[in-house]
Design brief:
With about 120 residues, the protein is an all-alpha fold. About 85% of the residues lie in helices and about 0% in strands. It is built from 5 helices and no strands. Helix 4 packs antiparallel against helix 5.
Length: about 120
């Protein structure tokens, strides 16, 4: 008999019952979280852990890129932004550079906050 972690059960239910808008917000929140964890790992001199968290952040950006609805000017602008952010995350990962992570974290926080405000308006 397998005992499930209550937090994992909650997370699974939250994802499976979320609207597309809520899922996008969750992705933004996850992006911020993994960037911050990558920075903490660098500060703790745990480069392997930093690498893992950075890759998670890159995966989230890839997911944001593939879920964009094509044909809208904002989608093209976001795609350009996501591409830039992903490239900078790769650079930060190679160099273990907190300053680059700070830059991308700032963009991720702004996107998350903007998305949350847009969800409230709708």
């Amino acid at each position: 008999m397998t005992i499930k972690n209550p937090y994992q059960t909650y997370q699974t239910q939250a994802v499976t019952t979320a609207s597309p808008e809520e899922l996008t917000h969750m992705l933004y929140q996850g992006l911020v979280k993994f960037i911050r964890l990558s920075k903490i790992a660098i500060q703790n001199r745990n480069m392997e852990e930093s690498h893992r968290y950075n890759l998670r952040a890159q995966d989230i950006i890839s997911e944001l890129m593939v879920t964009l609805k094509k044909g809208y000017p904002i989608s093209e602008q976001l795609l350009t932004m996501y591409d830039y952010m992903k490239n900078r995350l790769v650079e930060a990962n190679l160099k273990k550079d907190e300053e680059i992570l700070n830059e991308i974290e700032g963009y991720a926080v702004e996107l998350s906050e903007t998305w949350a405000m847009a969800m409230k308006k709708n």
